[in-house]
TrEMBL record:
<keyword id="KW-0482">Metalloprotease</keyword>
<feature type="domain" description="M23ase beta-sheet core">
    <location>
        <begin position="79"/>
        <end position="186"/>
    </location>
</feature>
<keyword id="KW-0378">Hydrolase</keyword>
<protein>
    <submittedName>
        <fullName>Metalloendopeptidase</fullName>
    </submittedName>
</protein>
<keyword id="KW-0862">Zinc</keyword>
<dbReference type="InterPro" id="IPR016047">
    <property type="entry name" value="M23ase_b-sheet_dom"/>
</dbReference>
<keyword id="KW-0479">Metal-binding</keyword>
<keyword id="KW-0645">Protease</keyword>
<dbReference type="GO" id="GO:0004222">
    <property type="term" value="F:metalloendopeptidase activity"/>
</dbReference>
<dbReference type="GO" id="GO:0006508">
    <property type="term" value="P:proteolysis"/>
</dbReference>
<dbReference type="Pfam" id="PF01551">
    <property type="entry name" value="Peptidase_M23"/>
</dbReference>
<dbReference type="GO" id="GO:0046872">
    <property type="term" value="F:metal ion binding"/>
</dbReference>
<dbReference type="InterPro" id="IPR050570">
    <property type="entry name" value="Cell_wall_metabolism_enzyme"/>
</dbReference>
<dbReference type="InterPro" id="IPR011055">
    <property type="entry name" value="Dup_hybrid_motif"/>
</dbReference>
Length: 194
């Protein structure tokens, strides 16, 4: 087998460098906070809770998360209102906080999903594009922070070549159903400010 010469190694190194730069540009498209439409009290609470939730993909470091909350979806028809956490198919999805499984659901857009309500009932945590639920997971079941509840996949309208967890948080009014609420940017709740 012929080994690459000095020129061959330089070409390989250049190709790897260009690939890394391209991926970095693609992944970090819009680092943004949700600017308008939030009242001061809600912003204060989000700031106080910064880093309060567990990152929902096992072993994922905070530095790997990207704030995609305000990115447009459906050709600009709507905001993302969530973050996508890129991970290998089958990676463990963990409960971000103590709570109760409100709804196990499947839809065309989100695929296999979980709606988890916080213990105080004020938040819904939404996990989408799942590959599978954890064995025995059921609606009404209490879950603990860090408990394995599912695995990462690409169900629904997710790109088959890019498995990820679509994770959203919604503030809920008293008595509001699992599919209601107001979107809250999960990024600052998962990552402490630097």
């Amino acid at each position: 087998m012929r080994r690459p010469g000095r020129r061959g190694w330089a070409g390989i190194a250049l190709a790897v460098l260009l690939l890394v730069l391209f991926l970095r540009m693609c992944v970090r498209i819009v680092p943004a906070d949700r600017a308008g439409g939030n009242d001061a009290a809600r912003q204060k609470r989000v700031g106080e809770e910064a880093g309060a939730l567990l990152i929902p993909v096992e072993g994922m470091p905070p530095g790997a998360l990207v704030d995609t909350f305000t990115q447009s979806r459906a050709d600009g028809a709507r905001a993302h209102d969530a973050i996508d956490i890129m991970a290998a198919r089958g990676s463990a999805v963990l409960a971000v906080a103590d709570g109760r499984i409100e709804r196990l659901f499947s839809s065309v857009e989100g695929g296999l999903t979980i709606y988890q309500r916080s213990t105080d009932g004020r938040r819904i945590y939404y996990y989408a594009h799942l590959d599978a639920y954890a064995p025995g997971l059921a609606e009404g079941q209490a879950v603990r922070r860090g408990q394995r509840i599912a695995t990462v996949g690409n169900s629904g309208n997710a790109d088959p070549a890019a498995p990820h967890l679509h994770f959203a948080v919604h503030d809920m009014a008293r008595g509001e159903k699992w599919h209601g609420g107001r979107p809250v940017n999960p990024y600052p709740l998962l990552v402490r400010p630097r």
